[in-house]
């Protein structure tokens, strides 16, 4: 413990930031000095359960928040509101003194500096609780909102949520969980919120739709080119189960784009282009990304052509942890990536994540170790090794360690096992 106590607060804080929450709590309890340094990290996230069946238990805690008697609200930087269970109307009748929504609103307003809010609305939420949450977001100017519709929402939420504006980042998921009319109304409301957030820099969309039909919302529904308004400075865009077309309308807001994540792209004749068309458009429009996140089986020649067309890519994530089937070209694409592309982008690359789900040229080995070793600015490296736990693969594991030793800035090395035996289930 004396070695920890000798560390300056700045270094101790960096140590704490690398720990998981459970270990951070243990560190916080070590002594008063360490408590003072890391307490804000341990207590920066606050969870509030508005589930009907738990309101009597939660009520006292909310009143303590509202009174300011709990010190941990001073450290709250991120708030998560969720509904842990569904109950009948009789189970959550108003309390004898104050309605739950009033106590909830007073507790939320006691949080002075909470820029991030994650909300899991529920179809069983009553309108008063919903209004309390939205009033808090508007009054406290929550800048970063994540909302997940997995459990549905109150029928009035698409209309009430229109009060939100001036968000810096917006992330929403599972629009498909709303009934058809509700999903349509919510899509319109979210597009209006985006339009009313002229300084938005980050947008993440996961509709949850699995079929490539016009029922699935398109990027055009959320990014409309209103020429009388200046373009939004969107730097980070994440698209999952979205129909996306990069044309004059959407590109109007994407000229400042720095990072792009695309997964489960939905291709349709209207507003749903193929990925190779996206990469061609970005190359032709000279939009140079610094970070790309894509399913490994969807890496194609168009993407490789795009990568070698400019300098400045810092992060590549090619991940097939969902175990999608790849095309026969996946092997030659990997060979071209390591032979022709990686050497040309090696000087700027800081994060490389390669996670195939099956044996092949994307796995780490003698054929690509030299190309990876040339990426001397890498800070994070994730590779897959065939039968990593087997004795016959230990030379490859040792080769990886030798390769990592040539990367002076590397501080995070992750190895993933790929089995030669087909995995079922």
From TrEMBL:
Protein name (database record): F-box domain-containing protein
Tree of life domain: Eukaryota
InterPro entries xrefs: F-box_dom, LRR_dom_sf
Domain F-box: 1-50
């Amino acid at each position: 413990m004396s070695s920890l106590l000798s560390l300056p607060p700045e270094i101790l804080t960096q140590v704490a930031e690398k720990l998981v929450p459970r270990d951070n709590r243990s560190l916080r309890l070590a002594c008063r000095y360490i408590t003072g340094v890391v307490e804000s990290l341990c207590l920066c996230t606050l969870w509030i359960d508005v589930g009907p069946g738990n309101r009597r238990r939660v009520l006292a805690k909310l009143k303590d928040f509202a009174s300011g008697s709990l010190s941990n609200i001073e450290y709250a930087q991120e708030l998560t509101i969720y509904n842990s269970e569904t109950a009948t109307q009789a189970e959550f009748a108003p309390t004898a003194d104050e309605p739950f929504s009033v106590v909830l609103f007073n507790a939320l307003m006691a949080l002075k500096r909470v820029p991030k809010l994650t909300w899991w609305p529920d179809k069983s939420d009553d309108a008063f609780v919903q209004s309390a949450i939205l009033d808090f977001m508007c009054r406290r100017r929550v800048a970063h909102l994540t909302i997940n519709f997995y459990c549905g929402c109150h029928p009035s939420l698409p209309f009430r949520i229109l009060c939100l504006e001036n968000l810096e980042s917006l992330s929403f998921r599972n629009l498909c969980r709303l009934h058809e009319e509700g999903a349509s109304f919510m899509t319109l409301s979210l597009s209006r919120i985006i339009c009313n957030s002229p300084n938005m820099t980050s947008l993440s969309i996961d509709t949850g739709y699995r079929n490539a039909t016009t029922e699935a919302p398109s990027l055009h529904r959320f990014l409309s080119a209103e020429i009388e308004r200046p373009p939004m400075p969107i730097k980070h865009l994440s698209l999952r189960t979205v129909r996306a077309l990069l044309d004059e309308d959407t590109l109007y807001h994407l000229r400042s784009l720095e990072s792009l994540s695309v997964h489960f792209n939905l291709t349709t004749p209207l507003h749903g282009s193929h990925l190779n068309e996206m990469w061609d458009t970005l190359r032709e429009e000279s939009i140079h990304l610094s970070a790309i996140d894509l399913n490994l089986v969807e890496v194609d020649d168009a993407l490789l052509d795009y990568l070698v067309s400019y300098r400045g890519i810092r992060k590549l994530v090619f991940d097939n942890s969902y175990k999608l089937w790849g095309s026969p070209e996946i092997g030659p694409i990997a060979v071209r990536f390591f032979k022709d592309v990686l050497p040309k982008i090696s000087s700027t690359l800081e994060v490389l994540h390669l996670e195939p789900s099956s044996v092949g040229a994307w796995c780490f080995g003698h054929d690509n170790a030299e190309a990876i070793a040339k990426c001397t600015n890498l800070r994070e490296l994730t590779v897959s090794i065939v039968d990593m736990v087997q004795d016959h693969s230990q030379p490859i594991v040792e080769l990886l360690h030798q390769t990592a030793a040539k990367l002076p800035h590397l501080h995070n090395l992750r190895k993933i096992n790929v089995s030669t035996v087909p995995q079922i289930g």
